[in-house]
Write a structure and sequence with these properties.
This is Nitroreductase domain-containing protein. With 326 residues, the protein is α+β, with helices and mostly antiparallel strands. Helix content is 33%, strand content 16%. It has 9 helices and 10 strands. The structure holds flavin mononucleotide.
């Protein structure tokens, strides 16, 4: 175990700034941070008030989001020359304490940056809900994304044409079901923010994307239909590039690992010049989530669909400043 180094305020600030840039379901930012003054440990807690009771009743998507924030903390710690030791769910008596990050180090100069551009990608990554060009992503880049998921304790499957059609079909079914459930659309809509509103959470309407004019790409309709306006339909890429993030188990720690893997994949893609967006709708209906499992794979728990490719950047979304409590 490395020498413990007291984290100074600037280091902690850098860690928290990186953490909150993570993606989160509906931009709920379901995390809170606390510096344990005795152990010099950065604690990552769930934020009980920022949940989606209908969309995410077991908090799986919340854990994915928090896992993504933990991955950013790890990258920022290394960038600051510290070694992060992460313990997931460190105290069974505190179910809301999702991770503890102890900083040890300092790192040797050659350990400080890996030159992979991941830390720099944290601020550049945005969800892009716009049509992509359809240009094929080179195999080595896809292999890098797959390896990233694997090294973070999850799996990434890039389906062939038939598999892509199957997963898009399940997502289309999920999207239709959600839109037919008024309580669900009301919950989603409550996380949309109007232009000019000063709201630290939720998705500004400016970050929403259009529907697909061809009706093939089931982008999530956050508006729930009129009277909230949605951008006019556009033609999405015919050559859809999707990846299914999955895990071999489906426990709370697997969701946190999957969240870290998600962020590792998204940052790898961003660092290589790709855009990404997420399709989570099928994961929100248990039968459709099961149906999304890979045929022939014994233990496959689907966690999220990632759409990737080349195209325009997405709009930025706000982040709350007051996520810390010490
Ligand atoms: C678990 C999870 C599920 C998500 N599901 C969707 C989705 O179904 N559709 C979508 O457009 N965005 C989805 N997102 C993206 C969030 O809306 C986005 O991360 C958030 O609004 C913050 O914006 P940013 O990613 O540009 O920083 C999801 C994000 C996470 C972490």
């Amino acid at each position: 175990m490395g020498t413990q180094v007291l984290p100074d305020a600037a280091v902690m600030e850098a860690l928290l700034s990186a953490a909150v840039m993570a993606p989160s379901i509906h931009n709920t930012q379901p995390w809170r941070f606390r510096l344990d003054p005795v152990g010099q440990v950065l604690e990552v807690h769930s934020a009980p008030g920022r949940t989606l009771p209908l969309t995410d009743p077991v908090h799986r998507a919340q854990f994915l989001s928090v896992g993504a924030a933990v991955f950013n903390i790890r990258l920022a710690a290394v960038h600051q020359g510290r070694r992060p030791e992460v313990t997931l769910l460190p105290d069974p008596r505190l179910p809301g304490l999702l991770a503890a990050v102890r900083l040890t180090g300092p790192l040797a100069p050659d350990e400080r940056t890996s030159g992979d551009g991941l830390y720099e990608a944290i601020a550049r990554r945005h969800t892009s809900r716009l049509p992509f060009t359809g240009r094929s992503v080179p195999e080595p880049v896809v292999a890098e994304m797959t390896a990233a998921a694997h090294s973070a304790g999850a799996r990434l499957h890039v389906p062939d044409f038939a598999g892509t059609r199957r997963l898009l079909g399940l997502t289309t079914t999920a999207e239709a079901r959600t839109n037919d459930t008024p309580a669900r659309t009301a919950e989603t809509r409550s996380w949309l923010t109007a232009p000019g509103a000063v709201a630290p959470y939720g998705i500004p309407v400016t970050a929403l994307g259009p529907p697909d004019a061809a009706g093939r790409m089931p982008m999530r309709d956050f508006t729930g239909g009129p009277p909230v306006p949605r951008p006019p339909a556009l033609w999405f890429e015919r050559h859809v590039q999707l990846a299914l993030l999955w895990t071999g188990h489906d426990r709370r720690e697997d969701w946190l690992r999957a969240g870290q893997a998600l962020q590792y994949v998204l940052l790898t893609a961003t660092a290589r010049g790709l855009r990404t967006s997420l399709l989570h709708q099928a994961m929100e209906w248990p039968d459709l989530r099961s149906a999304a499992a890979l045929p022939g794979v014994k233990r496959c728990h689907p966690q999220l669909l990632i759409r990737f490719g080349y195209g325009p950047d997405g709009g930025s979304t706000p982040r709350a400043a007051g996520a810390r409590r010490w």
